[in-house]
Amino acid sequence: MSALPKRPVQPIPIHEHALDNLRFIRETMERAAEFTVVPGWGLFGMGCIALAAGAVAMRQTSHTGWLRCWIVAAGLAFVVGAITMRRKAALEGKAVFAAPGRRFALSFAPAILAGAALTIALVEARLWSTLPGMWLLLYGAAIASGGAFSTKLIPAMGAGFLGFGLAAMFGPPAWTDVWLIAGFGGLHVIFGLVIARRYGG
Amino acid sequence: MARHSSATAIPVRDDSPLTGADTRLLKASSSQKTVGDLDRVIHERIRLGVVSALAVNPALTFTDLKALLEVTDGNLSVHARKLEDAGYVECTKTFEGRIPRTEYRLTDAGRKALERYLAHMESLIHATRGGK
Known about the structure:
The structure holds 2 protein chains of 2 kinds. Chain A is mainly alpha-helical. Chain A contains 7 helices and no strands. By secondary structure, chain B is an alpha+beta fold. Chain B contains 6 helices and 3 strands; from the N terminus they run H-H-H-E-H-H-E-E-H. In chain B, helix 3 (about 45-55) crosses helix 5.
């Protein structure tokens, strides 16, 4: 009966058990809140706006015309994103700036603000060809960090933007519009559709 | 309940077996004057999961909870019933077409119980670390 050697039982310190409980609560809450505040149909709409803006921007003969197209598109996309995010949260019975939305906004905003400031600086310095890569990289960073607390699709979309950003920054200058359209148009449309189907709109 | 008479300060409202670590937590609770009563209704892992999940959602269906906590129907039913009996969650049964839908919501009592439990765990951590 007592042939097996007795192994000393290592007691778990109380505070570690309490920490483990707290960790479990936090992880459960994170998984339960994994519904994404990012609106799939909103992203789809933003992508369509970017595709249209890209088509118009490519036909512009001046840098300022090209820039105006993308800035107008960014403004429209922001409005579409804000409206659809609010609508999705309302449908889920949540406030937009409840914990997941607030975390997303706080993580998303800094890189976007940096992008706005750098846009002004680069335009003043006439570094037009740097703009697409910078926009894609910072938007990708914003999405990746904002989506760190959301479903895994959002950071994946952010990674896609970062990839296109690198291509635009270091690839042939003639391709920058293509990367812009592929990123702001293509990625938004594709991920928007997937999120809309999987995460309730 | 009788098994843990050493932790007399702890109101034990449940008969599920305690692990060694649970018992130590209960004993530690009773020895800490700064720490309130440990709520064993919530202390059980599945029930703690249900309450935590409902704390960040206005309502979750039985299916949502089952998928989230990766438990069986029977297991979740038993634990959800215990939470209902304690007044920590309320259950609504409806039909979507012909499909029954069971939805759970956290009650005010449940939310307060979770807050108390969190405070309790934090107190234990502070007490044991502070005592070193």
